[in-house]
Amino acid sequence: LGEYQLIKQIGKGSYGEVWLSKHQKDRRQYVLKKISLVNASQKERKSAEQECKLLSQLKHPNIVGYRDSFELEGILYIVMAYCEGGDVYTKLKEQKGVPLPERQIVEWFVQVAMALQYMHERNILHRDLKTQNIFLTRSKIIKVGDLGIARVLDSSNDMAKTLIGTPYYMSPELFSNKPYNHKSDVWALGCCVYEMATLKHAFNARDFSSLSYKILKGRTPDMPTQYSSELLELMRSMLNLSPEKRPSVNRILRDPFIRRSIQLFLESTRRPGTAPNSASRQPLPPSPSSAQQLQRQQHQQEHVRRPPRPPTSAAPAPQPSMPPFSSPSSRRNSSSSCTSAPSTPAPAPKLPKSSSVASELEAEAVPESAAARLRQQRHHPR
Fold first, then answer.
1. Which of 135, 180, 247, 328 is the most exposed place for a label (fewest CB within 10 A)?
2. SS3 of residue 33 by DSSP
3. CB 21 within 8 A of CB 31
4. Which of 128, 154, 207, 255 is the catalytic position?
């Protein structure tokens, strides 16, 4: 495949295949998605083109990096960064019932929230957020991936209407076949954080009808007892039956508990010999810090040169027993296959700024200046 050497297949779905590959010149590993367009319908072609367009335009430390895309003999190839650390779903399975420390949960939670904040500010819904689509780099930085069914809204007040996603993480409004917006992603985020805290799904059932009944009943799942009341309250708020009562990701990132946790994380990374995900619980510092500080810290970590290491690959995450509730053309297999190596794509057209941002988002928005400077920087090789 020209500049790319295929190493091994690491995923397969109705859409095509996912391969781990190596670039012939820079010798880095990338994930290469193969999507057959030979017998593709117009809808499937549009979905593939949409993924390429979205990936090429989204530049954020916590979103899987896009490198390139090209078509060859009826096959669309999408080249992305490779997440050597695997996915969060697999990491939780590896815990074998041992709860994660709160600091680890909050670090993952905050980074996923920052990725969603970036998307929501551009009126983009993820629509399939789950622990299998949340990846880790070698340096343990979170990357949100699998944007193939993401939808760009005309404005932040627009409501999507397509029933799509993975059942365990679907919001009540989706089960009710009602229009939905960015608060549906917040519900999925709540499900993911609950899963990180309990090592099990927030809502589980043997079939789709039972799962639908459980979620629409509106009963918040039992909360774990070993974590702080602040974290538990955030989980409850994200899993509120009413989307209007759920916090936006901007409000989540402005929560005093989250801001103090970010400051604690930043301070721990500056202290020699202190791991960011240390299991020890320490008092939270009094002064809050913005999410953008953490983004800058991650950006610096991503560009630190490291000595070469033998290639490693993450095994694909086992899929949940209940299949995704969507058509084969709109779902893609999730595996530990996205990459974290920094990419150097050609400059992409700038996404339009929303002209009608909802008043809630305007009132709660975290200052964007630092994130804007970060997005303007060109990614360069380690």
1. 328
2. strand
3. yes
4. 128
Looking at the predicted structure, is the pLDDT value of residue 273 above 90?
no
* Structural domain that includes position 150: 88-138+146-331+361-376
Matching residue, tokens 């519900």? 187
User: What is the number of alpha carbons within 13 Å of residue 282 lying toward its C-beta?
Assistant: 20
pTM of the model: 0.70
Annotation marks residue 146 as catalytic = no
**Is 352 part of a structural domain of the chain?**
no
Instruction: Say how far apart CA 71 and CA 301 lie, in whole Å.
Output: 33
Nearest partner of 99 among 195, 187, 190, judged by Cα? 195
**Identity of the residue numbered 163:** L
Q: Where are the beta strands (DSSP E) in the chain?
A: 4-13, 16-23, 29-36, 66-72, 75-81, 124-125, 134-136, 142-144, 151-152
Q: Is residue 279 part of a domain?
A: yes
Instruction: For residue 99, give the CATH number of its domain.
Output: 1.10.510.10
Say which amino acid occupies 375. R
**H helix intervals, 95-247:** 102-121, 172-175, 182-198, 208-216, 229-238
Helices 102-121 and 291-302, packing angle to 10 deg:
100
Do 21 and 5 touch, CB atoms closer than 8 A? yes
Annotated binding residue 33: yes
